[in-house]
Amino acid sequence: RTKERGRNNFQLYTTSMNEDSMQKLSLEGFLRKALGLQEFVLFYQPQVNVSSGEIIGVEALLRWKHPVLGMVSPASFIPLAEETGLIVPIGEWVLRTACEQIKIWHEAGYPDLIVAVNLSARQFLQEDLVEMVQRVLEETGVDAEFLELEITESVTMHNVERAIVVLNELRNLGIRISLDDFGTGYSSLSYLKHFPIHTLKIDQSFVRDITTDADDAAIASSVIALALSLNLHVIAEGVETEDHLRYLAERGCYDMQGYHFSRPLPAQDVEQLFVRGKLFKTEVVPPLSDED
Ligand code: C2E
Ligand code: MG
Ligand code: MG
Ligand code: MG
């Protein structure tokens, strides 16, 4: 009986493997055509400073609107785009589109806005990454100081020496580098000393239960303290509630991103939030004193 069940399990397993690879194959086929068919669109999520209430920047987030599959989440197609190398042309499209948009907003009367663009590991390994970025900035007429590139710790793991060189080149152009999902990777803290990083981005997994889970609270608080003591900018992602906001601000993190302020939105919709201005003004939260 055990043997029989073993065989059945095996069959089930191969069947689902086949379905998986079939699905992957057709997804890959669709993905190859998506750029040419103009099925990609960028959404933008505001980054808010809670003491001024102002939107300081936006993160560009890729969306794929497939006529049949519907809205495909980046979590499901970015890994495939990485695997196939398609992320390289897609990533260049993302950067160019985000820069064109930020230029439009600068000229429309929001001259200080910064745009954050996610960079994947595969893109980071491209020989001509720095030239590509420089070219896109030139062609779109955007000053490098208004571009922030978000990388994850894993991006820098493949080749630390080269990562330092590339990051320094980007930094020398005037671009800010942000460490996304900070705390979820495996980089050693000494990296922070060697990498020219501008911003630490507290991962949303630590923010979610920040007021109820003591470990998450301790990690988030430590990241803030670390950033402040290393003179790095710190921003929290996944801020969904007033309690999240308060907890973070009390510990000295005033820049935030999350559904509490706004979901990622199409360009025209996020622009409505700039127009309304100071929408997110909250009372200034004083830092906790040591006794608290
Ligand atoms: P990420 O860069 O860490 O982006 C933050 C993700 O959290 C986004 O998911 C955003 O929609 C979501 N988010 C924002 N606020 C909240 C909140 O309050 N609660 C919750 N639960 N989620 C929130 P999204 O847009 O689905 O993107 C997922 C990931 O896909 C991104 O994570 C990033 O790693 C990747 N990605 C997105 N766009 C690009 C891109 O243009 N290029 C590359 N290489 N990766 C991208
Ligand atoms: Mg990001
Ligand atoms: Mg993140
Ligand atoms: Mg994430």
TrEMBL record:
Residues of the full protein shown: 453 to 744 of 748
Superkingdom as given in the UniProt entry: Bacteria
Protein known as: EAL domain-containing protein
Residues of the EAL domain: 24-278
Native source species: Tumebacillus lipolyticus
